[in-house]
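Lab notes, practical 5.
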Amino acid sequence: MRLRVRPWPIAITVEGLNIGRFVRQAGEKGLRLLSMRRLSSRRMTALVAEDDLPALQELALHGGWTLSAGRRHGAGRGAEWLKRRWLLAAAALCAGIALLAASRVMWRVEVAGGGAYDADIRAALTEMGVVPPMLRSRVEIGAIRDALEWRYPRIAWFEAGWRGTTLVVRAVEGVLPRADAQDGPCDIVAERDGVIHSIVTRAGTPVVKAGQIVRAGEVLIRGEERTGDGAVRPVAARGSVIARVWVGAAVSVPAVETVTSYTGRRQTVSTIRTPFFDLWKLPACDYAQFDTAVSQMPVGGIFLPLTLHTETRMEAEISRIRREMDALRAEASAAALQKLREKASAGESFIDIWGNCSMIEDEKVGAYAIGEKLVEIGLRAPASGMAAPAADASP
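Output from the prediction step:
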């Protein structure tokens, strides 16, 4: 029994008389022919195991047949390619190993949503030893999140996770404490009027829910929690309250435009000027209304600072014309919209904008624009006592 160490199939072509006898003798010797194809009465092709090729060549030699070997098939063709290009295969293998090793390393740290704290958060991560490159297995996501939340109480909470080989630390801004806020139990109140869009409570008891209208100063999250035995204990409320708020902007644009037109009459006068006086005075202009174009040309050189001063006076007529209402409305609307956008803080954007135009007194067109945006309205305030949660109430 032969041990076949190269089981890859190889193509052969057999030519000669009585091809059937070749097939029969090969079978008697235990040499398997696969995918046999009879091309003519004297020619056939087949696939054989590469280890059987020498025996078949010997059989063809003694029987008067011509046997020619072709290319390997299947995995054998790949082995042949690798044998000819072993250096390239080795480089690809090394590249694959390097890529696998690189995927287990943190190569970059990204901080998002930190605002003014971005640079300080990066410094804090460096102090914690989170400096690329380092093994991902050595990065403790939970410990990083807890340490940052303890260090930055002005941030509602932190999220940390992986995006490929990048560690992404995202700061979610929430309640900003008052400058005079004291440590200990406190509530979160509304900084401005609005309609609650979402509320996420980290500590305390929510007393509002999505869709509810709130006024400035109204309690949003009360600084108290119920224990397992039904008792109430005071806590420092923490959370994020996003509300829909509306901002408006108004402008007025004159409906009458002042237009300057020129009659074509001109008056050109000149004088020589020194740094201290004019050699002669310019005559007064005879026109009631005029525009002036001035040109100056040095004439004395660097050692004699004299300048030829020339004025061209063009007679003008000023008239007031009424502007087209469509263009006036478009200009007023664009101005109101621009003024509204200037009221959006950094990182804010309006989710809806609408407006209108109307004629007002003094021949002016007024336009207003109102924008709706989502903002954080929570603000810490001293605890005001217990109250039943409004979040469970019916709308």
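Observations recorded by the TA: The helical segments are 19-28, 53-63, 75-84, 86-103, 118-127, 141-151, 325-342. The longest helix spans residues 86-103.
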